[in-house]
Amino acid sequence: MSIMLTCHFSMASDFFFPNTGGVESHIYQLSQCLLHRGHKIIVITHAYGQRSGIRHVTNNLKVYYLPMGPFYNQCVLPTLFTSLPLVRYILIREKITIVHGHSSFSALAHEAMFHAKTMGIHTVFTDHSLFGFADGSSIITNKILKFSLANVNHVICVSHTSKENTVLRASLQPHLVSVIPNAVDATVFIPDVTKRSQERIVIVVVSRLVYRKGMDLLASIIPEICHQHHDVDFLIGGDGPKWIDIEEVREQYQLQDRVTMLGAVQHSNVKNVLNQGDIFLNTSLTEAFCIAIVEAACCGLQVVSTRVGGVPEVLPEDLILLAEPSVKSLVEALNEAIARKRNNSVLPPEHIYTRMKDIYTWQNVAARTEQVYDSIADDPTTELAERLERFCHCGPFAGIFIIFLAVIDHLFYIFLEWMVPRKDIDIAVDLLHPSIQSNQKDLPNVQLLPRRRLPHGQTTVEYQLPRLRPRKR
């Protein structure tokens, strides 16, 4: 425990608040639990509109919103070298010992880990997605992932299926990959049957309306189910490019009064949407770990889902109906769920909640992530020659290209060490979790530094990013 309390960790990803999603929730909840356990945590992400600079959110979690706007799909343009000055400044200022990147889609996560290795800092990566091997997009992403993870200290996947997928895609040794599932805040997702309709059966869908979430399947399922069951309605929460497809189905079959489109739903309001339904439907075509079905189960809903990726690992067999990713199979599974509801043969919501509330907890995720950090704390620093040797195994042409990038990054880092010496960078004051000071008897190894007082009633403090001071000649 004494080792861990001297470490400062940095989460890095393009995906964070105010954006909403599974990765964003994972980073936030994991950071909060690690803060509560006495660690120093910061988050590095890109600017969101006017949200740029340094912000302090709940429990003194410091977030660096770099002045880099999103380029595509909420990710920054991958330029590699332009982010080094700021990332180096932040890692030195915060005395970071481990950089933890999240999501294969995040260019900022890969760049932060690349720069951290140049600086001799340990890195961990969490993969939240599954990828194929045949289409062009997957081939390019898998190659980038292979470069990025060539020198990573450890990798975390959210399911065993995801682990197998990542090991194959990035050519990793299996012992370097751990499985730590996602979690859900069971104190928030509590069943409330008073919000359910007594006369109608409501099927709830809460998802991003994109192709890989199976929205084409949903568009075909809705008219079929509505035709077979006149007492069944759909409640759909989420936004995305497939919105127009669902809207066209509503108009074509005149289902405006039976299919409700809520649009984008704030995460704080998801529980209210779920508690209005009886059945939760997940039509994903690929999924490493579907946190939405865990939230739905905690709210006491029957869960119907496609049998893809890591979904079969998530819930007990009696709490989920699995179907193949086809319209026919999903309609059959929904018919069975509807029959159970009519026959009153479903488990009571309170019973389901009691079973689920202790299975996936963020406290458990934080403790297991802590063990990963502890396991790499004594790893030797990877020297430049060793890094270049590992890049050689990434391919005869691509390997030479990434070696060139690594050498340029190293030379740029040496230049910055001369231009902006470490001694000229102010070390940030540690703002620990509020509970740490009250429990300091239980944490004798924590050095309690002076805490910056926040204005009364203020939950967010904004700062401008510090300017780099050039070396005096």
What does this protein look like?
- This protein has about 475 residues and is α/β, with parallel strands linked by helices.
- Helices cover about 35% and strands about 15% of the residues.
- The chain contains 15 helices and 15 strands.
- It has helices at about 20-35, 85-95, 105-120, 135-150, 160-170, 215-230, 245-250, 270-275, 290-300, 325-340, 350-355, 360-375, 385-390, 400-420, 435-440; strands spanning about 10, 40-45, 55, 60-65, 100, 120-125, 155, 175-180, 200-205, 230-235, 260-265, 280, 300-305, 320-325, 460-465.
- The strands form 2 sheets. Strands 8-7-6-5-1-2-4-3-15 form a 9-stranded mixed β-sheet, with helices on both faces. A 6-stranded parallel β-sheet has the order 11-10-9-12-13-14, sandwiched between helices.
- Helix 4 (about 135-150) links the parallel strand 6 (about 120-125) and strand 7.
- The protein is elongated, with a radius of gyration of 24 Å.
- Residues about 1-5 and about 440-470 have low confidence and may be disordered.
Number of helices: 15
SSE class? alpha/beta
Task: Tally the beta strands.
Answer: 15
Helix percentage range? 25-40%
How many strands, which pairing sense, and closed or not: the largest β-sheet? 9 strands, mixed
The residue ranges in which pLDDT falls below 50 over 5 or more consecutive positions are 1-5, 440-471
Please tell me how large the radius of gyration is: 24 Å
Distance between the termini: 44 Å
Task: Going across the biggest sheet, name each strand in turn.
Answer: 8-7-6-5-1-2-4-3-15
SSE string, helices as H and strands as E: EHEEEHEHEHEHEEHEHEHEHEEHHHHHHE
Calculate the mean pLDDT score and round it.
87
* Beta-strand residue percentage: 15-25%
Identify the overall geometry.
elongated
Oligomeric description of these chains: single chain
